[in-house]
Task: inverse folding
């Protein structure tokens, strides 16, 4: 079964990432393949600041103006994507860099244009295109910048990487969605919560226990579980090789 891994911006600079992914990719090639989705929020923020812009987030999602969308393209679909692909290729992985705009890999519609601007939520995934790459033995490395399939905002929308990864995992019927961050998992009182039910995760979002980026991860995880993905994990790079590490969000009836 296919596995989908989303890599946050900070873990991308960790030298152990390519090693962990190379090992996982070799195993996954004969078992449905591996798809990698990446973020790169710090790089977008730096580019915005360099060009005199500002950064604002609402519930872990970046407010994106019409001007910002090209900066997001440059940072995510450009430098972040190609740098990650280059690192993986050097490690022996047949990685192919893409964005959600390519072949309408991800079609999105505005999430809340009044509050977030050019931010989208995935609505469609070009599964045939992904399966074509996977069957050829390639590792798709995907920037979450997506095509505005609604046509209401323009050609592109800034989609949160966790949301993009969840949509792809659902579309592929992935065995697992792993959201890799710079923390070991969802924390409570300084300790990792090993397992969450959808109900508990929803409560953590509602009462503010999970905020910012972790809120976005849990929301994406809940969407994935609701869409049929049986197992979602939130953890760090070490969790790529260690299936017991991190916080697991299980579908109802899948607790173990």
Result:
């Amino acid at each position: 079964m296919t596995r989908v891994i989303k890599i946050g911006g900070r873990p991308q600079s960790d030298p152990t990432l390519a090693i962990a992914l190379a090992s996982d990719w070799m195993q996954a090639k004969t078992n449905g393949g591996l798809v990698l989705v990446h973020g790169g929020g710090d790089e977008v923020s730096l580019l915005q600041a360099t060009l005199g812009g500002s950064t604002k987030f609402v519930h872990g999602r970046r407010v994106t103006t019409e001007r910002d969308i090209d900066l997001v393209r440059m940072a995510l679909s450009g430098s972040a994507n190609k740098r990650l692909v280059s690192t993986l290729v050097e490690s022996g992985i047949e990685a192919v860099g893409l964005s959600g705009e390519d072949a309408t890999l991800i079609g999105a519609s505005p999430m809340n244009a009044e509050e977030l601007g050019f931010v989208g939520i995935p609505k469609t995934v070009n599964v045939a295109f992904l399966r074509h790459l996977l069957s050829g033995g390639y590792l798709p490395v995907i920037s979450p910048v997506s095509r505005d399939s609604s046509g209401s905002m323009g050609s592109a929308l800034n989609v949160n990487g966790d949301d993009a990864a969840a949509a792809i995992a659902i579309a592929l019927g992935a065995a697992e969605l792993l959201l890799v961050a710079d923390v070991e998992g969802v924390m409570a009182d300084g300790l990792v919560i090993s397992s969450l039910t959808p109900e508990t995760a929803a409560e953590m979002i509602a009462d503010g226990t999970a905020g910012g980026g972790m809120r976005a991860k849990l929301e994406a995880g809940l969407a994935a579980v609701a869409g049929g993905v049986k197992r979602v994990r939130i953890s760090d790079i070490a969790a790529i090789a260690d299936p017991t590490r991190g916080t697991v969000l299980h579908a109802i009836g899948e607790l173990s």
User: Anything to note?
Assistant: Residues 3-250 form a domain with the Carbamate kinase fold (CATH 3.40.1160.10). The first helix runs from residue 16 to 28. The chain has a mean pLDDT of 92. The chain has eight helices and 15 strands.
